[in-house]
Amino acid sequence: MRLIDTHCHLDVAAFDCDRWAVLERATAGGVAAIVVPGIAATGWAGLLQICAQDSRLYPALGIHPLVIPQHEASDFKHLEKLITQARPIAIGEIGLDASVGDVARQQPGLERQLALACAADLPVLLHVRKAHEPMLACLSRLPRINGIVHAFNGSLEQAKRYLDLGFKLGFGGMLTYPRSTRLRRLAAALPDTSLVLETDAPDMTGAAHCRQRNSPEYLPEVLTTLAQIRTLAPDTLAAITTANAQSVLNLDVPLH
User: Fold this and answer.
1) Is the pLDDT assigned to residue 256 strictly greater than 70?
2) pLDDT tens, position by position, 92-105
3) 124 lies in which domain range?
4) pLDDT digits (tens, 9 = 90+) for 107-159
5) What digits encode the pLDDT tens for the residues 43-59?
6) Fewer beta carbons within 10 Å, N or C terminal of the chain?
7) Are strands 31-36 and 57-61 parallel, antiparallel or unpaired?
C-alpha cells in the first residue's frame, strides 16, 4: 500500500525541528510521495531547497489567495522564471478565498497564475473557500487546465463541474470527524476516478490528533476513513487514489 499526499506544507517552520524524522515515519506508514505547495514568494527558495534534498518530495510553486495583496508584478515574473528553471510538479497553492478575503483583489493574481500554468502545461493546486462559482467561471474560460481542488468542500453539483473540467478532488483530515456528515455524503457519492488524498499538514488535523500539529504520517487515517465511507478495502482505495494522483500530476512515483 503506497500513498501520495497531494498537499502537505512540509517546508514550513512547524517542521523545522523534525522534518526528516516526520518524512521517515510517513514513509514507514506507506506514504511514497508528498507534494509540497508554495504559499508566498518569500518561501519558494526554501521550499525548492528542501524538496531537492529528497526524491520523495515534489515541489509546487504559487501564491496563496490570502497573500496575493502582498505581492507585486515582479513576484509573478519571478514565478514565471522559476517555472522554467525548477520545473515544479504543479502551480499552487493558488485560488480564491471569500471566507476572510476579497475575491475581487485575488482574482487578477489567480488568473495570471492560471495563465502561467497553461503556458507551461502544468496542473494547478486550487484553494477555494466560499468561491466555487467564480472559480468555476474562471476555469471554464481557459482552453486547457486541470489539477486538484484541495480540501474540496463544495456541493455535489459543483464537484461534477470540476470533474468535467478534468480536476480531481482532495480529501483530508476533516473527513475523519464523525460530525462531517455533509462532507462524508459527498465523498461517498463521487466516482472513484475523482478522489485523491491529502493532509494539508501542519493544518487541518484529523480527529485522532485534534489540536495537534498535522503530519503526512497521518495520511493512512484519511485513507481508512474514506475506505469505510465507500465500503472499499483500504488497499483497493489506496491503489485508486494513488493512480488518480499520478495521472493528474503526471507523477512517476516508485511505489515499491
Assistant:
1) no
2) 999 999 998 899 99
3) 3-249
4) 999 999 999 999 999 999 999 999 999 999 999 999 889 999 999 999 999 99
5) 999 999 999 999 999 99
6) C
7) parallel
The CATH number assigned to the domain holding 70 equals 3.20.20.140
Rounded to 5°, the CA angle 162-71-131 comes to: 25
Structurally, how many domains does the chain consist of? Answer: 1
Cβ neighbors of 122 (< 8 A, separation 6 or more) are 83, 88, 89, 90, 91
**Separation in Å, CA 163 to CA 70, 126, 168:** 32, 13, 6
- Containing 37, the helix (H) or strand (E) segment is none
Residue 20 lies in a domain: yes
Cis preceding-peptide flag for 157 (omega within 30 of 0):
no
CB 51 within 8 A of CB 23: no
171 with 196: CB under 8 angstroms? yes
**Whose grid coordinates read 470533474?**
163
Q: Which of 126, 130, 164 is CA-nearest to residue 147? A: 126
Residue at 255 is within a domain: no
User: Under a CB-based contact definition with an 8 Å cutoff, are residues 98 and 128 in contact?
Assistant: no
Residue tagged 488524498 (cell numbers): 197
Closest among 211, 104, 111, 92 to 150, alpha carbons compared: 92
| The three cell numbers locating residue 215 | 503530519
Buried b (16+ CB within 10 A) or exposed e, 149-179: bbbbbbeeebbebbbebebbbbbbbbbbeee
How many residues are there in the chain?
256
pLDDT reading at 178 higher than 70: yes
Cell of 45: 527558495
